[in-house]
Design a protein that fits this description.
The chain is of the alpha+beta class. Helices cover about 20% and strands about 25% of the residues. It has 7 helices and 17 strands. Strands 1, 2, 3, 4, 5, 8, 11, 12, 15 and 17 form a 10-stranded mixed beta sheet that branches. A 3-stranded antiparallel beta sheet has the order 14-13-16. A hairpin with a 4-residue loop joins strand 2 and strand 3. The longest helix is centred in the C-terminal third of the chain and has 21 residues.
């Protein structure tokens, strides 16, 4: 099936509100996904160095059954502060889990590492998280590429900063009948972004003269063979291991419980594998959230299959929508 014929805007998913806020000069930002009525949720964290908020809450054995927001941000662990701004905004709206002593908005989140791009002194904070919520409530379609959590996102990092390319925020949403599924992703991967349809590299590790792609897997294999001709040196594992993470959220109006949401998050890693190569390396802190608003009864496996394709196509959008910035080329540089 050609899903492009079924593509919708993220604003067509009325149970959710999505907004960005960013500091373009400092190359960092955040993206918030709000569900005022609450959503069943799950998470998959397969990265070795994740920066995350309230992920344990999503374990099916734990009490809270619905969350109200997911915050995706730059800033590494510092950027988790953006979630405090989301909490403040939702509290002001009277949205949250009723404890009997007041409402507590349930806000999950994850952050990627963008501190090396321009400055490590400016990170997403409470004010930026709050502004992203204001923008979400404006009803405007969120911008992709160099916005929100994608502001400081980069890819192709195996051989150091000279080989980086600019990536960004990608969104892809579809509707089949009454079922809606979307993926929102910021790709800050060690590896390359691969075109879902034909397998070519869209963005990733540049060759030495920056005229094309070196292919991260090939560069890794040359390292194994102890050849250094590509760049004249080998990567610094201490740097590579701290500078990557692809963070994302699957949205759907399907009726799913917490167990199913967690299973869907795990399956959606297949979407990562279709759009990023290599994926889930020891230097990536990849995380996937799921939010299900529960409006439509539909078979789980159909939702999962659709979510994987939406994720792969959102990853491709993170490359195609990114503009050259901060001295880095992007996929648009090779058009």
């Amino acid at each position: 099936m050609d899903l492009s014929k079924h593509e919708i805007k993220i604003t067509d998913m009325k149970a959710f509100k999505v907004g960005n806020a960013q500091n373009l000069e400092a190359a960092t930002g955040c993206t918030v996904i709000l569900c005022p009525e609450g959503a069943s949720a799950g998470v998959s964290v397969v990265g070795g160095s994740p920066a995350s908020r309230e992920t344990q809450l999503l374990n099916p054995v734990n009490t809270v059954q619905k969350i109200h927001a997911v915050s995706l941000s730059g800033g590494s662990a510092y950027g988790l502060e953006a979630g405090d701004g989301v909490m403040q905004f939702l509290e002001e709206k009277g949205i949250g889990f009723d404890t009997g002593f007041g409402l507590v908005p349930i806000v999950c989140g994850a952050s990627l590492f963008d501190l090396e791009l321009v400055t490590n002194q400016v990170r997403p904070d409470k004010a930026m998280g709050y502004q992203a919520c204001v923008n979400a409530y404006s009803g405007k379609e969120p911008e992709m590429g160099n916005f929100g959590a994608g502001t400081g996102a980069t890819v192709g990092k195996w051989l150091g900063a000279a080989g980086y390319m600019k990536s960004g925020l990608g969104i892809y949403a579809v509707q089949l009948g009454t079922l809606q599924v979307a993926a929102i992703v910021s790709v800050n991967a060690l590896g390359d972004i691969i075109n879902y349809d034909d397998g070519h590299i869209m963005a990733g590790l540049l060759n030495a003269d920056r005229t094309g792609f070196a292919d991260t897997c090939d560069a890794m294999y040359q390292t194994v063979e102890q050849t250094r001709e590509l760049w004249g040196s080998h990567p610094d594992p201490e740097i590579a291991s701290h500078t990557n993470t692809t963070i994302s959220c699957i949205l759907t109006n399907a009726r799913l419980d917490k167990c199913q949401c967690n299973k869907l998050a795990a399956i959606a890693n297949d979407g990562y594998a279709r759009g990023i190569r290599p994926v889930h390396t020891s230097a990536d802190g990849d995380s996937i959230f799921v939010m299900a608003s529960g409006e439509v009864e539909v078979g789980f496996d159909a939702v999962a299959a659709l979510a994987c394709e939406c994720m792969a196509r959102a990853i491709n959008r993170s490359a195609s929508e990114a503009k050259p910035a901060y001295g880095l080329l992007s996929a648009q540089s090779f058009r």
